[in-house]
Fold this protein.
Amino acid sequence: MSSTRLSRRSVLALAGASLTSGCVRQLESTVSRDERTPLSLSIKTVPADADAAATKLARYLATRLQAVGVAATVVPMSREELLRDVLSNHDFDIYVSRLLLRRDPDFLRPLLHSRYGPGRGWQNPFGYGDLSLDSLLERQRTETGSVRAATLAEIQRRIVEAQPFTPVAAPRPAQATRPVRVDWPDGVGIHSLTGYLGARAVTTTSTASRTESTATSSATPAPAEQSTPAPTSTPATTTDEPTAENELRMTLGDSRPTENLNPLSTPFRSDGTLLDLVYDSLGRPVYDRMRPWMAASWEWADGDETTLSVRLRDDLAWHDGEPITAADVSFTFRFISDTALGSLDQPVPSPRYRGRASLVESVDAASDREVTIRFGDVSEPVAARALTIPVLPAHVWEPFARPTSVSWLDGGNVTEALVRNNLEPVGSGPLRVTETAARESVSMEPFEDHFLAADALDGRLSRFDGGFSFDSLRFDVVPSDGAAVELLATDAVDATANSLSADSRAAAADEPGISVRTSRPEWCYHIGYNHRRPPFMNPRFRRAVARLVDREFLVDSVFGGETEPASSPLVATTYVPSGDAWDEAVSDLEFVGDSGTGTLDAERARSVFEDAGYAYSGDGDLLIQE
Amino acid sequence: MIAAQSSIGVSPLVAVLARVLGGAAVALALATLTIIGPSRLATAYGSGSDRLREAAPYLCLLAVVLLVNKVARGVGPEVSWALGWNATGVIYAIEGNFVQHVQSLATPMLTAVLSRVYLSGYVFLLTFPFVAYFAAADERPLKLTAVTYAVNYAIGLTCYVLFISYGPRNLLPGQVESLLYSTYPQTQILTGEVNVNTNVFPSLHTSLSVSAAAIAIRTRETYPAWAVVASVLAAAVAFSTMYLGIHWGTDVVAGVVLGVGSVAFGDWLVGRRSADA
């Protein structure tokens, strides 16, 4: 694409050098008339080492695009480079990646609202713009119940119709663990805050002399499936390295946290679970309900449904020993909206949390322990999303509210706070980071001044009483899923934090003493289009591409079994509509070929592109007008 | 090059390392006994220090290049991404599914053999020349080996910094199987310590092996058996890189050119310096 554009430009430049501008205009209209070129595009994604399913999906799409006369190339990139190109530079044609699914559907608003098009981060990276969708997205955050459900149904119908991006499938995360060593809480994923806080070491009967709180561990029933032969003596003796007596050892497939632990960084963050352990927030979704976390309690003001009074717990402290006050909370919200704190001409918001921060109008410290949050016109459940923003220590972050030292490179609108590595994070979470080794490991230990460890808790949080129950937590980076399963089989680790691919899942299930646990979908594979570039701004073109996708086949062959095919990004919620209108919208985009086999009917698929207004060259190349 | 800079602190790494180096050490000992022979070793012992002094500048050159290599591999990827020349698509466009065809030959037996060739055989092929040429009467092959390796690394590293290229196993999962790592997952912990998966063009495994074989053929008068062993082993290493899904055919072709070219350059350099002296 670019080569022809360049050549046209250079022709015009040459012409312009010798002709008057009026002539140039005449020439330009001659030159640009009916200038159609074969479409070639790149599909950016991550390599198989990072996410084999993403690479396979990208390859699948590339071969189907080639079959309809589009020269498509897969470009594998490291995770952070892919995110930089997609989320910050907007330099892509098509990309294939995971989209993190949030519990509340309001995550769609920053993802698709046209106001967020020019920004960075997971806010409309596509550059999509539809004013009527914008108003629907704004409306749903003020609504509740069936009214909101109806609006969300309309939003999803429009998404299916316009295909701003194409959702493909949402797999259930699968982690492998050794049940003889660790007992994980039911109903939550292993690699989650509640998973780690609820994990207990299993003291086997043969080695039970160690006086741990056997009440919790021995009371839990032995894992149902995969019961291992009886005499498993598994005290930590097999490793030749001195491991801490009671360490929880995890494999990590993604090395980014070993190089950057900045909660504000976009390219280095994905699910953010590691930082959920390190940074606390005012509230936490615990077993599906938002619960006060750093807050002791909160209360909506009488007669004013947009004002929330939050009271912090007493004696909260940062990992460096400084006390936490309400001023830190108000600082955090101010800082996230402008990481330059007013020192630059324009505010520099944190690309992460922008959607959540946009719900809040103001945050004021009413006293040392009390915060008053004023929300815009939003419903309570949506407003609660803002309570999950990690609270940052003002004394640590304030010095970084300045332009980066390479401001001449990044245009001066990036702050040090957004790009710093933060490898010694000062949070207030139940675990604190003790050591990181680049591309190798992250080690943590329980933070003894955390409220879970110190307070006697009642209600729903009582299950976390005492906090993290091991002496330390260690994440070792592994090059692949296969290597992770191997380490698990040799008892070098206790569980995998990385979700296993279909192949490794099968390999792990075959190993004695290892069981695989799945949890509900947390991300959705999707195909993203750059609407800033032709021909992707054309909905007919995107719809034609969407009809190359055989979800049924992909679920079977790429994602392997426990995967939801997804036409809607709300696949993991209860808001996916049903009924004729929805079914019709979905079936309009049916795969053009033999469903379930991935075999494309190339002739018919080409005619779909022709119906969309595209023409083919004599060689069968799909032509676009630049 | 196999010397792991730092371990991730888990025993499987040490175990794999021991097995790879152990295999190479056994081969090295056997070859020393049979190809060089005890008598030649005994005579070499006396005159060895002279030869070492002669070859010292060349060995130092190699040491410096290896040191630079080690440092540059840390910062290299960042520079590569900043340049942003991703060659993966170009290479795939050139050769298509060639590696997939190579893998159609796969059997468990062949995978086992070629995995050992790729890991231990390679280490043996590169280290034995130093022992053999230290024991030889002529110091020239020792110098040539050192210079040739240095040139291989210098040019290979330059390419690694300039281009981003992922191997077939990373672009074509499901079509090209990552045979080494799917059969012996623990080996990836080792190679992951040494290599970055964005550096596959050219194949340094191939180029260094080809260089070692080319020099072995030169010294066939002294070590006729080594000329045969090195040639066969070099071919097997080059083949294994494709068979195991690690390298593209293009990487291997570039590796052969680099390997032969490095020997030619080494020849010229060593010849010129000897003429000066």
